[in-house]
Amino acid sequence: MKRDEEILKKTTVTTSVFASEEMLKSAPVDTIPQHSTTPEIAYQMVKDETYAQTLPRLNLATFVTTYMDPYATKLMNDAIAINYIDETEYPRIALMCAKCINIVANLWNSPEQAKWKAGALGIGSSEACMLGGVAAWQRWKNRRIAQKKPYDKPNFVISSAYQVVWEKFAQLWQIEMRTIPLTPEKLTMCPEDVIAHCDENTICVVPIQGVTWTGLNDDVKAINDALDKYNQKTGYDIPIHVDAASGGFILPFLEPEREWDFRLKWVLSISTSGHKYGLVYPGLGWVVWKDKKYLPNEMSFSVNYLGADITQVGLNFSRPAAQILGQYYQFIRLGFDGYKAIQHSSMEIAKYLHQQIGKMKPFVNYSNEVHNPLFIWEMNKEYGKKAKWTLYDLQDKLKQNGWMVPAYTMPANIEETIVMRIVVRQGFSRDMADQLLTDIAAAVNELDKLQYPTPSRIALESKVKIKGTVYTHTGKG
Ligand SMILES: *Cc1c(COP(=O)(O)O)cnc(C)c1O
User: Fold this and answer.
1) What is the distance in A from the centroid of ligand 1 to the CA of 63?
2) What CATH code is assigned to 74-331?
3) 329 C-alpha to center of ligand 1: Å?
4) Closest Cα partner for 129 from 271, 282, 331, 317?
5) Residue-wise DSSP of 243-260
6) For residue 307, what pLDDT is reported?
7) Ligand 1: which atom is nearest the Cα of residue 210?
8) How far is the CA of 306 from the centre of ligand 1 (A)?
9) Which atom of ligand 1 is the closest one to the Cα of 285?
10) Ligand 1, closest atom to CA 276?
11) Which CATH number fits domain 2-52: 2.40.50.1020, 1.20.1250.20, 4.10.280.50, 3.40.190.10?
12) DSSP category for residue 391
């Protein structure tokens, strides 16, 4: 034993990685190791802890980019050491960022005449949503102060199918979140409900394009028109911030005639994720205001040492610059037509899967429509009455084939409904879709042979009994 220890202590650069002392010990959890080790050993340890749990290409749960071409990857790797905020060192990157904001703003039909549009980059939609929300709050507050009215009870209105960032926004800035529940009849937020939730303290309404839970779009035009009437009647100025995390890079290409963006009067800001359908590796988000005047001075500062006046806004200071290079590369490389073709392919495959899954006996689609390359389905009610399994069991079965297809329960009010979701991204082909369908059919076939209910089935039945409803969602909550 003593001799073994001595051998191990002599770990040098010539020691094989798996003959080293480190490989016989647990990796550090609480304290930094006392001694250095070789880069090969450190690399191997970290690498081994970061094996993908599922193959990224077979992960149909995430919205985030898992494929970029080798040139984009090289550009981003080359820029890995660049801090975006070092504008004096890398002034061209700030300019490149401003160009990206211009391009995004124009995709959303910005009416702003200024050479540089008012906008900001973020780590993702989360930061972009926060900035849009804070701006709305600050504008409302400034107006209330001017009117000598209290400004201590701000609220905003959003569908109950909000992404968690809005809960953070409400909590961190202490702004009341008023949610509009989905019902089996109302699959998205409807304008009458929006108005019913508004009052003088409403800082903004937040429709979503590409609702995370369902893939559907809130009807921004209808909400805008209802708000317009309401604002006229009341004298309020309640604006709209569109959370277009997914839809922001889908609608301009696939449904250019659909009015959801700055063409609408009350849409004053829009956010999106560059790392979702913007086709860039994480983390990148964008937020754009309709005009500089909607971006409160309190939130922005101008820099003029770049040969231009560039507005700067953000929650972060230092952040990686590589994603900006990635985004600008994609704009140049793909162009409008390239983006359109890629989004079209994702959409076609999503629609194909939607149609095929809708045809399978155990399933029923949540909606007949697909407006973004993602959709959800639930178990057919009749089928569900005798099934010994739930969609959670199907999720587990598919995992055995490497697929990550998440099952989850819907938000408040229809939370007894279990659904399954597929997000189609660049990198998912028709052939892979066919493989997935084959695997789903085989898994269902096996699950149907079960004699006894699965644990998730038993749990579901006891929950449903407590609620007093059997396999149906009444929408009454
Ligand atoms: C993904 C998503 C977010 C959060 O975006 P990140 O880019 O992950 O920060 C916000 N809203 C919606 C609707 C989303 O789908």
Assistant:
1) 9
2) 3.40.640.10
3) 22
4) 271
5) E-TTGGGTHHHH-TTS--
6) 58
7) 13
8) 31
9) 7
10) 7
11) 4.10.280.50
12) H
**CB 289 within 8 Å of CB 300:** no
Phi (first) and psi of residue 33, to 5 degrees: -60, 150
- Are 208 and 156 contacting, i.e. CB atoms less than 8 angstroms apart? no
Question: What are the distances in angstroms from CA 338 to CA 316, 331, 344, 345?
Answer: 32, 9, 10, 11
Rg (CA), the chain: 25
Could you tell me the pTM of the whole model? 0.92
Q: Are 246 and 277 in contact (CB under 8 A)?
A: yes
pLDDT by residue, tens only, the chain of 477 residues? 565 666 556 677 788 899 998 899 999 999 999 989 999 999 999 998 887 766 788 999 999 999 999 999 999 999 999 999 877 778 889 899 999 999 999 999 999 999 999 999 999 999 999 999 999 999 999 999 999 999 999 999 999 999 999 999 999 999 999 999 998 889 999 999 999 999 999 999 999 999 999 999 999 999 999 999 999 999 999 999 999 999 999 999 999 999 999 999 999 999 999 999 999 999 999 999 999 999 999 997 776 665 556 667 899 888 999 999 999 999 999 999 999 999 999 999 999 999 999 999 999 999 999 999 999 999 999 998 899 999 999 999 999 999 999 999 999 888 889 999 999 999 899 999 999 999 999 999 999 999 999 999 999 888 766 554 444 333 332
Domain boundaries defined on the chain? 2-52, 74-331, 343-467
Give pLDDT, residue 159. 97
User: Which of 63, 65, 131, 163 has the most ligand 1 atoms within 8 A of CB, as the residue to mutate?
Assistant: 163
Residue in 62, 121, 126 to alter for ligand 1 test, most ligand atoms within 8 A of Cβ: 126
Q: Distance, CA 68 to ligand 1 centroid (Å)?
A: 20
Are the beta carbons of 216 and 187 closer than 8 angstroms?
yes
CA of 27 to the centre of ligand 1 (A): 33
Report how far ligand 1's centroid is from the alpha carbon of 313 (Å): 19
Which of 52, 54, 62, 50 shows the shortest CA–CA distance to 398? 54
- The domain 343-467 is classified under which CATH number: 3.90.180.10, 3.40.1180.10, 3.90.1150.160, 3.40.50.300? 3.90.1150.160
Pocket residues for ligand 1 (CB within 6 Å)?
Answer: 63, 124-126, 129, 163, 165, 208, 212, 243, 245-246, 273, 285
Helix (H) or strand (E) holding 110: none
